[in-house]
Design brief:
- The complex is a heterooctamer, with four copies of chain A (68 residues) and four copies of chain B (257 residues).
- With 68 residues, chain A is mostly beta strands.
- Chain A has one helix and five strands; from the N terminus they run ββαβββ.
- The model of chain A has no long low-confidence stretch (mean pLDDT 91).
- Helix content of chain B is 36%, strand content 16%.
- The chains are: A mainly beta (68), B alpha/beta (257).
- The interface between B and E is small, with 5 and 5 residues.
């Protein structure tokens, strides 16, 4: 049974109990270099497999873009 | 004479830092970066577009020898800037951050109160903080006291191309600073970059002046030369100014009249 | 892109012209000339010192690839200038002359009446005349009408190091001129040279700014870079100036707060 | 047209504010004050010299029609400034205060963090706060938000006489401000005062430029006229700038040649 | 102190000279002239329109106490200027002439060769010649040698409103001149007039800056004040410029912290 | 019989033998302050009654206008 | 028996129990316009008669001087 | 019998009938590059052997020196 989260500012339904790694796979995010923040704290790469998303979590997935 | 400079443990020979925004294309950006001779390049941190499948990544266009300098552009509070810096570190696997805390949408001038607060936090977390600040000597001192690795006062508003509006303040900042002073923002053309270096800046950071020039690659070369020119002139020691003339040819030994 | 320019049949790639006065030594002068990349070098014509037996000749210190540009410095009348130009041609075996007719000892500003008169005579005699003039657009036009191969308005008094005092007049001269406009005199540091080129000058001539810098050789290099920087920026097309800012990083895609 | 301005309930016609420091004598100061036409005069608060019996009081030399504006000069913390402002009110029996929180001994530039903090406290205590600040538009906004009755950005360092170093920032501040903007510090001569007013300043505050002029009384008159000239020019609407000329006499109807 | 100046036998107290061209109406012109306090007013000489019967005469709008200064505007040769000056004398019954020999239609800069020639002729004929010239110190000297009663270098092109483009040259001219130096042309706003006077000008002449201001009468008043302010500041002796600050309030006697 | 002259740059027919004063009257030039030049030489007021216009003369009649 | 206070930054002995008004009289401070601060708080004019100086108090007596 | 000339602004006695070439030899001027002017006219290299100095001639011998 699915859970609601906020992903990059938008409401989304996700399968329950996903890890961050699974989420990225689920989203088909191939980009080698994204960074993930859950509830305003960074989830470092080494914890992508461990950190489970929970209902109501606020998730940010960011990448580098052009800037000065 | 190898005229190098350093931030933390990073050693650099180029004194021009460039950005990655507003270029007509990634191809042009890459050629401009190579023409500029820059070793440090700024990047911004933004939400990944989840709709775009496998969008072209900015990073593959940045030469491997260049050091990434993530910025916190468009952050209006210390808190946003701190979170953005942390995400930038996670993305870039480096501790350098160009810290911006913006105080006003129209001028993009820094909120110096938030800037100093954010700097303190990030320094504690081991970041090498390069703050974008205004040309206020007192704020520059506060940032140095907060442990910033450099201070980066603006020459003029970001993207304005107005050049060095207040060389007096910049000189005062450079006289007092014990950390490198970089001029960030405001440069419009090559002579502006030269002037910044002649004032004693350690380096100059620019984006729009190159990216939005009619010919970005050629302008990048111009900026490379302008920074080099200004640096060498600063080291060479210019002649003093005089109101009147001083002949460069002898006034004697003239033929009879 | 080979960015060359020419006077008469002479083709040049360097846009920096240097002098031979006031250097601490011939050795330093030679190293500075090589560092500058200049292809044209000015020399003065003076009475031979008959008491000095086999005095060191200036010429042996000037690299062979450089073109000599004899001047008529310190001439206060058209007549003196004409005679000096003829002697310079006999010495240099070339038709180029940097024509100076000085009107005032203190400022070394030209006497434009005598200057135009002398130019007419020398052009008739087949000289390729490069007149040192003030920044008056009308006089520049008269010199062009007289058949001068270029016009060389001053940026500021000779040796003053004041830079480009009146960019407005120089721009007006460059807009109207059909012959090359070189900025001669006044440059003090590398950014001044860059500014002259950004205004649209074809080249810059200087002596004191290099010869009397604390480190003449390094300053010569700075000037080479400054001229190159200004030229490239002129060609590349600078961004327009704005009073307010224009963000170089996107203002959207920010993380939630 | 009565061209007045106001702070709180105070209405003024003169747009020149003067100081009481550094005059050669009280007599000269008084004559200068009268010549200046100023209606507001700044004073400092200092420990009474208990050894001097019945020392000449500054106040007896200040014309009765002038409004006293106590300052918090030389205070380096918000706390010192607040205490000094309270003592000034007790002395002056008025609520006006020129708030200074100094951040650096050499430049006397403000500590904007302390300045905003002190402003908040004093506004709550009913003071009419006129803060001396730098030319940072963001800080000016913060001070306005804190309830200051005006903002007083500097033109250049106190006593430097460098004039208006950065007219761009001052214009940006004036565009955004909803409270009167006064230019405080930096003015050296009458044209500086006129320039400040032409930028749109509501008034100009100065001390050293008058007190240390060779003839303080005559300079006070010059400043009065300069402020009036700049104000009127601002209201009259100047002609636009052009690179080229526009004849003021007709180019037709000329006699035959 | 009656601070007067003179040309020939004419004694003046006002240091502002005004023109009669380009005003929206004669009524506005007259009010502007009165507001300016000027005592000298320039007029041009043109063919009478024989078709217009009894056209409104300019002269009836010029206050009787003002001295007419006929100009030779739009004359492009010495000969035209000389004939126009003679007609102006016949019209004006005075010997004063503002001598203009224009060398270029676009900039209206003088043809200095024709200018000096015409000046020599008119001086011989008993004219009191006030030549409009560029800011070349040598030409100024030639005009003085030719017997001109004053020299009137431009600040910037006629009607351009660019202000004093090259204060250095004007200062050099003023240092050397033994006749009064008036700044003619280029003034755009009141601070420009003040700057000209602070440089040491004896007076300032302007037309467009007043006539084409949004409010000519108020701008005339602004110019009157600006000239007065600059003159007084010049006499009063301004403070020297410093890079750093000098406190205007005592740094001692502070309350304990 | 009339004569041709150039008046302010234009060809004109004038009655023969006019003086400058008569010319001004003929033209109805009331303006108190004009100056007259005949063949590039000024004819001063005191000579208006005396100086006669001749055939082919070039005549300029000028006045003050606004200028800077 | 006297008490020690700090007056304008200097140690002083004062008679015990002085009011601010008495202190000013004691010091011969005629200046109509001084302001007094005791222990970092202003003592307003209307309280000069009431406010008693105590041992160890830190007193500041200030006046206007020239400033910009 | 010798002749008086002005050489570089100074009175000099020279042997009679010298050519310019002989004069330069006489003066021991080795410098390959001098230019000679006699009575305000240049004597070009190709005429050094031919042109004879006469009594009262004014002679200028010049070379390049440093200048801007």
């Amino acid at each position: 049974m699915p859970m609601r989260v906020t992903l990059n500012g938008e409401q989304r339904e996700l399968p329950d109990g996903l890890t961050v790694a699974a989420l990225l796979a689920h989203l088909g995010v191939k980009a080698p270099r994204v960074a993930v923040e859950v509830n305003e704290s960074v989830v470092t790469r080494d914890r992508h497999e461990l950190h489970r998303i929970g209902p109501g979590d606020s998730i940010e997935i960011v990448a580098f873009v052009g800037g000065g | 004479m190898a005229d190098t400079w350093s931030i933390g443990t990073h050693l650099f020979t180029s004194r021009l830092l460039v950005g990655t925004g507003k270029f007509p294309s990634f191809e042009v950006m890459q050629r401009a970066h190579l023409a500029s001779g820059a070793e440090i390049v700024t990047v911004a941190v933004r939400r990944l577009d989840l709709t775009a499948s496998g969008a072209a990544s900015l990073l593959q266009w940045i030469p491997k020898h260049m050091t990434l300098l993530p910025n916190t552009a468009a952050c209006f509070t210390a808190d946003e800037a701190i979170r953005t810096a942390r995400l930038g570190r996670e993305l870039g696997m480096g501790d350098l951050v160009k810290l911006e805390v913006i105080g006003d949408r129209r001028t993009l001038f820094p909120d110096v109160v938030g800037l100093v607060d954010a700097a303190r936090v990030l320094v504690k977390e081991g970041f090498i903080v390069l703050p974008y600040t205004n040309d206020d000597p007192v704020t520059a001192q506060r940032l140095e006291d907060a442990g910033c690795a450099a201070v980066m006062p603006l020459g003029a508003p970001i993207g304005s191309g107005l050049g060095i509006r207040n060389p007096y303040n910049l000189r005062i900042i450079m006289e007092a600073a014990k950390v490198p002073v970089l001029v960030d923002a405001g440069v419009g053309t090559a002579s502006d970059a030269a002037i910044a270096m002649e004032l004693g800046a350690v380096a100059v950071l620019m984006n729009t002046a190159i990216a939005e020039a009619r010919q970005p690659v050629l302008m990048a070369e111009a900026m490379r030369d302008g920074v080099a020119a200004g640096r060498k002139a600063f080291l060479a020691g210019r002649i003093p100014m005089k109101l009147h003339a001083a002949a460069s040819s002898p006034m004697s030994g003239l033929i009879a009249t």
